[in-house]
Description:
Elements: H1 7-18, E1 27-30, H2 35-45, E2 52-56, H3 60-69, H4 84-92
Parallel strand pairs: 1-2
Helix pairs in contact: 1-2
Amino acid sequence: MSGSLAGQRSALASQALGRLLHQPWLLHLVGGGTGEEKAEVLALTRPLGRRVVVHGPLPQEDMAAILRKVHLAVLPSFFRGLPLVVLEGLAAGCR
Length: 95
């Protein structure tokens, strides 16, 4: 995931991944966040253990390198139409 580490969006992703613990996967959280929202996201992902890598904000070239390695890019959002990170993920080969 990329963008801000917002609680409601990350909660959905964390819940969905919690149901897939029998499958092999690794979650890369990329983005910024401050205060309570960031703490909430980190608390939500703590039960997922070592399957979560928290990168924080990254330069564009580092984000592109991650997108080239992953199989799936997820941007849970209730408000975004077509954010740039979705297009970047598709260009990198994510589904």
